[in-house]
Amino acid sequence: MLLDLIRPKESSDPTPLVLWIHGGAFVGGSKEELSGYFQMIAAQGYTVAAPRYSLAPKHHYPTPLRQIGEALAFLEGNAARLRLDPDRIVIAGDSAGAHIAAQIATLVSTPGYSRLVGVPAPLDRQRLLGLILACGPYDLSLADDTDTPADAVLIKTSLWAYSGKRKFMDEVSLAPWSITNYLTPGFPPTLITVGNADPLRAHSERLAEALSKVGLEPETVFWPDMDPPLGHEYQFLLDTEPAQVFLGRMLAFLAEKTGATDAQLLSGTGEGEEQDLP
After folding, report:
1. 91, 108 in Cβ contact below 8 A?
2. Using H for helix, E for strand and C for coil, what is the string for 201-254?
3. Which residues of 145-154 are buried (b: 16+ CB within 10 A; e: fewer)?
4. Which residue ranges make up each domain of the chain?
5. The model's pTM
6. pLDDT score recorded for residue 273
7. Which one of 44, 112, 173, 178 has the fewest beta carbons within 10 angstroms of its own beta carbon?
């Protein structure tokens, strides 16, 4: 396993850690595709860790959860050398990576959930200060909830590959995949976004509703109908106003949850390197 580590260029003090899990429908995508986005975050005074995880169909659920847990253990164990503050961690993800990130948060906040999934909680809840979720899937029962047959086929094929089960919606062992059914008031503060024309829009809306039902108030960046419509992963199209709006909201969320001050927010680019995980 490898991860990319992008630090703020001018910082020598321990910085908050943002661990970002890339998307790709569980079968593709890579950390390298988002390196520019990570540099923008790092330039604001954060260290961004972008782990690689094994992809379906060769590797099945919950393998990526175990690997992200190993990445977190590596980062915490090497926090002094890597100039990280292990008590200020935010986990983020986009698309499939948002689901993995949300499951990590559920592992550390819902008693008994790690036993159901078969993966140990990878860190103490008090160290996880926030969660950023962009355009992710969170509920298996919504696999058919799409506007077009093509979207439904893509979603079902990806989940078949990831789960290793053709009839994944009927598989009892996959019930914990739907995190909307396992939330507790201990779930970390969460920022959720999705495009208005994203085929996974219903997932983000249901997650926000489920969090509200357990007494939490997630921050959301949801969009009304607009022209042009906002599709899947709209937040990375930085030449558009909606993507810039979300970027601003995300940086404000990070600053608030990690306790960053104006003096700690830096300008300039981040410096990156690749780290080997044992």
Report:
1. no
2. HHHHHHHHHHHHHCCCCCEEECCCCCCCCCCCCHHHCCCCHHHHHHHHHHHHHH
3. bbeeeeeeee
4. 2-272
5. 0.92
6. 52
7. 112
pLDDT of residue 1: 82
Q: What gap in Å lies between CA 86 and CA 73, rounded to an integer?
A: 10
**Which residues fall within 8 angstroms of residue 88, CB to CB, at 6 or more apart?**
16, 17, 127, 129, 258, 259
Q: Would you say domain 2-272 falls under CATH 3.40.50.1820?
A: yes
Query: Residue 202 corresponds to which tokens in the numbers above?
Result: 């219903």
pLDDT band per the 50, 70, 90 thresholds, residue 271: low
- The pLDDT tens digits of the residues spanning 54-84 come to 999 999 999 999 999 999 999 999 999 999 9
